[in-house]
Structure formats: C-alpha cells, structure tokens
Amino acid sequence: MARRAGAPEVNAGSMADIAFLLLIFFLVTTTIETDAGLDRMLPPIEPPDTDVVIKQKNIFQVNINKNGQLLADEELIDLKNLRAKAMEFLDNGGDGTCSYCKGRKNAESSDNPSKAIISLKNDRETKYGTYITVQNELVGAYNDLRNRESQRLFGRDFTDMEAEYLNPETSSSLKDELKEKVKSIQDLFPQKLSEAETSTSN
Questions:
Q1: Residue 7 domain-assigned (yes or no)
Q2: Residue of 145, 138, 155 lying closest to 92 (CA atoms)
Q3: 143 located within any domain
Q4: How far apart are CA 81 and CA 92, in angstroms?
Q5: Which Pfam families does the annotation name (predicted)?
Q6: Residue 146, Cβ neighbours under 10 Å: how many?
Q7: C-beta neighbour count of 89 within 10 angstroms
C-alpha cells in the first residue's frame, strides 16, 4: 500500500522581509497632518521688575460670548466689521507722535501703534470656529496695516515678504535683506494681541 504524502509545507522564510518592505512603503508614502496652530508670543518666565502702567484708551477690548456675539469696546458689532474697527484703533495716532498713521487722531482712542493693545476675552462655551475666526480678523487688521506701509516703503506686501523670509528655500543672502525689511514693518505696527482669562457664563 502506497504511503500518503503529508501536506505541502509553506516556505515562510521570506515573510519577515515582505512585512518589513511593506512597513517601509507605508512609512514613506503616508502623510501625517499637523495643525498649523496660532502664532503667539508667550509671556516671559520672569515678571518685569517694574509695573507697567497702561492707559485704558490704549486697550481695545474684544469679548466673545457663548452665542458668538462680539462686544468691541463695549459696542455690539458684527464679525464682518471687526477688522475695520481694530484697524481704526491701531491706526489712530491720538498723541500725534505717529507720522505714518492715517487715523482720526482721536484723543479718546489709542495714542500710538506701539502702545496699542488688543485684548481678547472669550466665554468657555464659545465655539472654537468662532474663536479662530475672530483671531484671524484681528491678525488680519495688523497685516492690512503692515501691507499698507510695506507697499509705501518697499513696493510689495508685508505678508509676501514675510512668507519669503520664512521659506526654508530662500537663500541666506536674500533672507538677510528681507529680515531688516520685515522687522522695520513689524516695528511700525507691533502685534500686541493678548488674551484675557476665559470667563464662564451664568
């Protein structure tokens, strides 16, 4: 009687190699999405030695309630008007020391762009989308004013110059040239955007 042959064996010697190649393939081809985040300067670790006195008229207060309504300098406004209102405050030049300001020079509003501060306060129940949109409008107010001055001084938008300066592919010689221009425009309208402690609705 003929002897029955056993089940054929599977050669699994190369399975580890195949798994390793697949792992490398997925690592190389997979893209990982990252959140852009918000560009903000954190306060210094050490508190200043002297107390800084800030006039109330140099603070532009923006409050967002849980329903997404905006209160800017104690006035209820629409989101579409926030940027213009912030620009009016930043560009006021109330004390007459700002030679490039084109505002109304209202003595009751900010003295100078270097002293103007925008304070943002939101409710704990404020929607994240509303919070980000308000942030974008306030940063947009700074960028619009910076673009205006950059066009006047250098014939191009500040946002384009800054993007080129931050681009890692930009040559070092061009970066050195752009650095001075970007800083000079930032000094004209320094971005002083602070966030007050979040409030809770009753």
A1: no
A2: 145
A3: yes
A4: 17
A5: ExbD
A6: 22
A7: 24
Does a structural domain hold residue 91?
A: yes
Domain of residue 87 covers 58-195
187 CB-near residues (< 8 Å, 6+ apart): 114
Q: Read off φ and ψ for residue 186, nearest 5 degrees.
A: -65, -35
How far is the C-alpha of 129 from the C-alpha of 44, rounded, in Å? Answer: 29
**Non-local CB neighbours of 74 within 8 Å, separated by 6+ positions:** 61
Per-position pLDDT tens, the chain of length 202: 555 556 666 666 677 788 888 888 888 888 766 555 556 555 555 665 666 677 899 999 999 988 889 999 889 999 999 999 999 999 999 999 999 999 999 999 999 999 999 999 988 888 988 999 999 999 999 999 999 999 999 999 999 999 999 999 999 999 999 999 999 999 999 999 888 766 665 5
Q: Which residues pair with 60 in a beta bridge?
A: 118
- 139 φ/ψ sector (left φ>0, alpha ψ -120 to 50, else beta): alpha
User: Residue 46 carries which DSSP code?
Assistant: S
Identify the DSSP state of 45: S
Q: Is residue 16 situated within a structural domain?
A: no
DSSP per-residue letters across 137-197: HHHHHHHHHHHHHHHHHHSS-HHHHHHHHH-TTS-HHHHHHHHHHHHHHHHHS---EEEPP
SS3 123: strand
